[in-house]
From TrEMBL:
Protein name in UniProt: Drug resistance transporter, EmrB/QacA subfamily
Compartments where found: Cell membrane
Entries under PROSITE patterns matching the protein: MFS
Keywords: Cell membrane, Membrane, Transmembrane, Transmembrane helix, Transport
Membrane topology: Multi-pass membrane protein
Provenance organism: Sphingobium chlorophenolicum L-1
Entry-linked Pfam families: MFS_1
Residue stretches spanning the membrane: 17-37, 57-77, 89-108, 144-165, 171-193, 205-224, 236-257, 278-299, 305-325, 337-356, 376-394, 406-425, 478-496
InterPro entries, per the entry: EmrB-like, MFS, MFS_dom, MFS_trans_sf
């Protein structure tokens, strides 16, 4: 194996540039797939003959599978080598993308999305780790800026691309478009990255820890997914899943904390800076993702938007974030990162609170402007958080800390999706009943009858209006709760001591 000082001479500047673009493209594809399906859920649900609530399994199954695999990335990279792991993951991601596009049932597409998430999980951390490996220190700043731009650009373009494809082609193509990108990345990795392969270490496999990880996360997610259709804890099945998830989680904690070679290193949580940082991250992404899940569905189901236009309305967060990211990057080292994070999270909270004023007759720019304003705060939250969390652990713990950070982020997104949709649906039913109990519809029905509507048609018009209003009222309540969570997270980060010294972010993802 080459000494670190010799690694940079293994690739010519041209090959290094091509390899860097390949790795950035791979990261972009994985991040894009996290949101590209969001606006397409109504199309997929309609085509497969399932409800919109069942369609959200397509989102959560990918996120949870990724959450399971990401903490294992460090162990897998040592076991198989970083380049080999990247190549195998990209091959699996492309294969499962093909199968997702060919799916004709909900069961098949959920299983294939799980496979897609398991293979896609290592691609983000491996793309960043390999970028740090092939570029010398003086070039890493520009390279990681490119990587960060793909991370911000993916969620921005996901709803737009997914909406356009669903409206003009077919939802199957939101998965098929991954195939040429995957093929290009595999070819480039085999051609360019072989000289910088890492040394393989045959580590013992913590089979019990791995099984416990899959068990408790699987029970938790199934409970969250089917709970809405089973009256939650009124159903013995949901109670059993909750008990199994709780017991599995406790046993997993005990096992991993006492195992000599744990599959997931939980000891990093002894650092208060890391713990407060990652829980801030989890709360923020859970609250932030509430809007990403609800807004496209509301726009399509109630406001008459196409998937393309609903994607455009939600994309402005990424547009403003991309312009602000360089400013946030330059402030690190000159400003207390806790202040940056707290201010950025509070900014996002105020933007979320702004959305609680939405009505059923809001125009496009009324909906898009809070998204744009929210994006200004995103870089001040995302970029310095890595400095805080990874600066709070020992250097040899950086990889484990980064894996756990991404694990909690993706798990928070999956849990948030299920909880938010449940709250939205329950709130809509409560609001509808309250409106129906106080509604005096006789003058409206008489006016509609004068316009030529039959009594049945008039009652249907009134029912549709009540449904539309109850949807937006319930959604505003969800946004208010999300804003409260964000304000709590803005204070939580101050439990951390101020990080000192430079942080090696090569393992961060």
């Amino acid at each position: 194996m080459s000494r670190p000082a010799d690694i940079f001479s293994l690739l010519s500047p041209r090959h290094r540039l091509l390899a860097g673009l390949t790795l950035a493209l791979a990261n972009f594809m994985v991040v894009l797939d996290l949101t590209i399906a969001n606006v397409s859920v109504p199309h997929i649900a309609g085509n497969l003959g399932i409800s919109a609530d069942q369609g959200t399994w397509i989102i959560t199954s990918y996120a949870v599978a990724e959450a399971i695999c990401v903490p294992l990335t460090g162990w897998l990279a040592q076991r198989f080598g970083a380049v080999r792991l990247f190549t195998m993951s990209m091959l699996g991601f492309g294969l499962f993308s093909l199968l997702c596009g060919l799916s004709m049932t909900l069961g098949m597409i959920v299983v294939c999305r799980i496979g897609q998430g398991l293979c896609g999980g290592p691609l983000m951390p491996m793309s960043q780790t390999l970028l740090m490996r092939i570029f010398p220190p003086e070039q890493r700043g520009r390279v990681m800026a490119l990587w960060a731009m793909t991370t911000l650009l993916g969620p921005t373009l996901g709803p737009i691309v997914g909406g356009y494809i669903s409206d003009n082609w077919s939802w199957h193509w939101i998965f098929f478009i991954n195939l040429p990108i995957a093929a290009l990345c595999i070819f480039s990795a085999l051609t360019l990255l072989r000289p910088v392969e890492t040394e393989r270490v045959k580590l013992p496999i913590d089979y019990i820890g791995l099984a416990l990880l899959v068990f408790w996360i699987g029970c938790l997610q199934i409970m969250l997914d089917i709970g809405r259709d089973h009256d939650w804890f009124g159903d013995p099945l949901i109670v059993a899943l909750a008990v199994m998830a709780g017991i599995g989680f406790c046993v997993f904690l005990i096992w991993e904390l006492t195992e000599e070679h744990p599959i997931v290193d939980l000891r990093v949580f002894r650092h208060i800076g890391f713990t407060s940082g990652v829980f801030t991250l989890a709360l923020c992404f859970g609250a932030y993702f509430a809007g990403i899940v609800i807004i496209p569905q509301w726009l399509q189901l109630s406001m008459g938007y196409t998937a393309t236009w609903s994607g455009l309305a939600t994309s402005f967060t990424g547009v403003s974030a991309m312009f602000i990211a360089p400013i946030a990057g330059r402030m690190i080292g000159k400003t207390d990162v806790r202040l940056m994070i707290s201010g950025g999270v509070a900014w996002i909270g105020f933007a979320t609170l702004w959305r609680t004023q939405w009505t059923a007759d809001a125009d496009f720019w009324t909906l898009a402007m809070p998204q744009f304003i929210q994006g200004i705060g995103m870089p001040f939250f995302m970029i310095p958080l890595t400095t805080l969390t990874l600066g709070s652990v020992r250097p040899e713990e950086t990889a484990s800390a980064a894996g756990m950070q991404n694990f909690l982020r993706t798990l928070a997104i999956a849990i948030s999706t299920s909880i938010v949709l449940t709250g939205w649906g329950d709130g809509q039913r409560v609001s509808r009943n309250e409106m129906a109990g106080t509604l005096h519809a006789d003058p409206t029905l008489a006016d509609l009858a004068g316009r030529g509507f039959t009594p049945e048609q008039g009652r249907q018009v009134v029912a549709n209006l009540v449904d539309a209003q109850s949807l937006v009222v319930s959604m505003n309540h969800v946004f208010f709760t999300a804003a409260v969570v964000l304000f709590m997270a803005a204070t939580l980060v101050w439990l951390a001591p101020r990080p000192t010294g430079r942080v090696d972010t090569s393992a961060a993802h």
